[in-house]
Amino acid sequence: MPHEVKLPAVKLWGGDFYNEGVTGEILFDKLKEECGVFGVFGHPEASHLCYYGLHALQHRGQESGGICTTDGSQFHYHRGMGLVKEVFDNDKLASLKGSIAIAHVRYSTAGESKLANAQPLVFKYREGDLAVATNGNIVNAPEIRKDLERQGSIFQTSSDTEVVAHLIARSKHDDIVEAAREALVKLNGAYAFLFMTNGKLIAARDPHGLRPFVLGKLGDAYVFASETCAFDAVGAEYVRDIEPGELLILDGSGLKEDRFTEKTKRAVCAMEYIYFSRPDSDIDAVNVHSARKRMGRRLAIESFVDADIVTGVPDSSISAAIGYAEQTGIPYELGLIKNRYTGRTFIQPSQELREQGVKMKLSAVRGVVEGKRVVMIDDSIVRGTTSLRIVNLLREAGAKEVHVRISSPPFKNPCFYGIDTPSRKELIGAQKTIEEIRKAINADSLHFLSKEGLVESIGHLHGETQGGHCTACFDNMYPTQVPDEETAACGCD
Fold first, then answer.
1. Are 460 and 454 in contact (CB under 8 A)?
2. What is the pLDDT of residue 352?
């Protein structure tokens, strides 16, 4: 049952925690987003709104979920491993009383799937209760952590979120807003933060706006989310995107718009448009599905091939495949079907079964692809193993030719901003030429969307570099200083 945290100042999450590791080779080498956040201020059913909001954001994190509420005098919270529907039930939600709440879904990397790192994290410090949830990664967290440990801070998780909480706890400011402001200016990286006390809700987005973060309203209540699709799930109205470097404060006097820095340079993660965000979400007033269709159209212009059908790899590539088909006039067909009931796999399969593992999640439709020249649209190639398996699925189903088209440039560089990516030496785009990749994935032809085509497809935002987007995974142009790749780690672990 949820309970109020009773811990000494600065320390958090005392007691025993269990670990539930997900180990073994990942059958799909797709990139993983780290987390999603949702917040409510001023609604009597705050916990239930968070539940539905998290459900809409489930694609951003599927290993743990949590909700923390306040009734104005104390916190109530519950966190658990698994999907949102597995973590919460009616009784748990009913026990999370209060009209202010923050919530979180999380994906962990490298098998580090444990309750101790699930969010929101809840703290006791000198000014009372504090709960924190974030999406993203603090690049300089290791350095800040070492400095805090030298000053006597005791850490109980490996999360960046705890680093920020310690900065707030050690601030010379008693006011939570000023303490948060002081902490935020020390951070380098990508983040969408929600801070909650018994009387306030504070939202902050990093100076580059790398991670999406939006503000909405539901009657007189305010809501925050990583994506606008969560507003649709709870019937809220989208108000606007939170600006890079912005600090929004909600308390009994209403909403106050503020900033923690004026030094901003917009660099929204391009992969949010390509792959991570749901197609029914809007980022900076750009609909994700429409952007992906434009990527497909541009890809068709840059790399037309004569074929019989176009098919997309479910689900994120379907929009681009539709755009490619519309531009070329080649019929779009459901050549690949996704099995949505495979669940999460905790077994350690044999190598032989592992090689066949892709068939658990994807099937080629023989009646559609047999004897046909197929254009297979996908959003990215990471290691190349999944692309090879899907191409072979199509060939085994009788496809005469398989032409692979990717609706993004070659993925050559790791991300340090809250996306689980392999090291550069594991990225096939960094190690092989396009022709070598084509041979490695057994395709008849292969073409990637140009970076210029990508930026133009999304749309130029605010007249900034790369149209206001981060394209570092394609061009090595990181918007912030980044650590040495060999020593870097994701802050969500």
1. no
2. 55
Residue 198, burial from CB neighbour count under 10 angstroms (0-12, 13-18, 19+): middle
- pLDDT tens column, 241-264: 999 999 999 999 999 999 999 999
pLDDT of residue 462: 63
Closest CA to 313 of 289, 338, 350, 280: 338
Q: What is the pLDDT of residue 210?
A: 95
The answer to whether the annotation marks 415 as part of a ligand binding site is yes
How far apart, in whole angstroms, are the C-alpha atoms of residue 459 and residue 436? 31
Tokens 């909650």 belong to: 196
DSSP of 85-138: HHH--HHHHHHS-SSEEEEEEE--STT--BGGG-SSEEEEETTEEEEEEEEEEE
35 is catalytic: yes
pTM equals 0.88
Q: Quote the tokens at residue 56.
A: 């809409």
Per-residue model confidence as pLDDT tens digits over 388-444: 999 999 999 999 999 999 999 999 999 999 887 778 999 999 999 999 999 999 999
- Report the Cα 17 to chain-centroid distance in Å: 25
Rounded distance, CA 307 to CA 294, Å?
20
Q: What is the CATH number of domain 32-264?
A: 3.60.20.10
Mean pLDDT of all residues in the chain? 87
The phi and psi torsions of 199 (rounded to 5 degrees) equal -135, -5
Residue 444 CB coordination number (10 Å): 17
Q: How far is CA 224 from CA 80, 92, 131, 411, in A?
A: 22, 22, 15, 31
Question: How distant is the alpha carbon of residue 465 from its chain centre?
Answer: 23
Q: What is the pLDDT of residues 83-141, one digit of tens each?
A: 999 999 999 999 999 999 999 999 864 335 578 788 999 998 887 899 999 999 999 99
CATH code assigned to 287-339+355-459: 3.40.50.2020
In the set 35, 50, 229, 490, the catalytic residue is: 35
Tokens describing residue 313: 């790899």
For 112-236, strand residue ranges (E) read: 121-125, 128-138, 189-196, 201-205, 214-218, 221-225
The model's pLDDT over 220-233, given as tens digits with 9 standing for 90+, comes to 999 999 999 999 99
Instruction: Please state the domain extents for the chain.
Output: 32-264, 287-339+355-459
Please tell me if the domain spanning 32-264 has the same topology as the one spanning 287-339+355-459.
Answer: no
382: DSSP letter? S
379 annotated ligand binder = yes
**What is the C-alpha separation between 250 and 371, in angstroms, rounded?**
61
